[in-house]
Every structure is written in structure tokens, then in C-alpha cells.
Amino acid sequence: MDRVAQLNDFMSDDVSDRAAQIASKTGGQLKRYIRARVSTDADAEDILQDVWQKLIETLEDGPVEQIWAWLYTVARNRIIDRYRKPQMTSLDDLASELGFEDGGFNLADFFLREDNTPEHEHLRNLFWKQLRAALADLPPAQRNVYSWHELEGLPFEDIARRTGENLNTLHSQKR
Q: For an engineered disulfide with 95, which of 19, 73, 100, 145 has Cβ 3.0 to 4.6 Å away?
């Protein structure tokens, strides 16, 4: 609910009221439409959030005719964009493919071990180079959350106390 309060700070009262009315009338049905077409609840939430953001931007410019059709068109386009975007394999899936089910593979142990073979040294250097480059591309808040949680091993509760953010926001920033 605090996201709605934050949005209201940036919108005129008329746009805020109109967006709230549209969301309350169509939100559940639109979310079910999206969820039926994507693989996870998180993907559905992300797409729905994109649709609401696009609605607010559009309402700032003026009224929208045939709002239902417009919402479903935006949702469909976001779903298509999601499928066009290259999918990345998660580390858990990769570990499973390599036969490390039940938590036998630990990425940190693999890259931090004291193995000095040329192949392992090359992989380790390549990994850290790519990780630093990827982290440099992130906004500072996301970079910090990822680094604290994944590299320093801080639980989200500690990060929340450190930053003042709620847990859902931190999970979203890390994702």
C-alpha cells in the first residue's frame, strides 16, 4: 500500500483517483489474465506493475478510450516482451544439471577454494571480472542489496534494518 502512497505524490488528484478506480475494477481479472500466460507469480506481478505504470503515464497525457482493451493490449505486449527477452539459467538449475542436487554445489566454495590449477584460476578470474562488470551496471541500491546478501551473506532482515527498506522491496531489488 505504501507504493500507492508514493505514486500519489507524483500524480495529480484526478489521475490518482482515475488510476485507483481502474485498478480496483480490473486488477484481479487482469492479474489472472497475465498469470495464465506466464510461468511464475513473480513474472505476473512484474508485468502487472508495468501495466499500471504505463496506465499512470498515459493518464497523465489524457483520458484513455476503451480502457479494457487498452489494458489487455499493454499486458499482452509486456508478456510478449518477456518471452522475447533472453532467458538466463539460474545457478540452481545449472547446479542441478551438473548433478549437484540437494545443495551439494556451493558457488562460493567453488570460486573461493585454494585450487591453483590454470583452468580453475582462469574460471575464477573470468567469473569475478564478469560479476564486477554486471554489478557496475546496476543502480547503487540494487548493487548494495545483491553484494550484501550474496557476497557478504547478510540476511535480508539485517539489510532491511541497515537500509530502512521493507523485505519485499529488498527482494525485488535483488531480483
A: 100
Which residues fall within 8 angstroms of residue 35, CB to CB, at 6 or more apart?
41, 44
- Domains, the chain, ordered by start: 2-84 (1.10.1740), 91-174 (1.10.10)
Residues 133-158 as b/e (b if ≥16 CB within 10 A, e otherwise) read eeeeeeeeebebbbebbeeeebebee
With vertex at residue 74, the alpha carbon angle to CA 73 and CA 77, rounded to the nearest 5 degrees, is 85
Rounded Cα distance between 31 and 159, Å, is: 30
Distance (Å) of CA 57 to CA 16, 51, 52, 68: 11, 10, 9, 16
Tell me how far apart the terminal alpha carbons of the chain are, to the nearest angstrom.
20
Cα–Cα distance for residue pair 129/21, rounded to 1 Å: 48
User: The whole model's pTM is what?
Assistant: 0.46
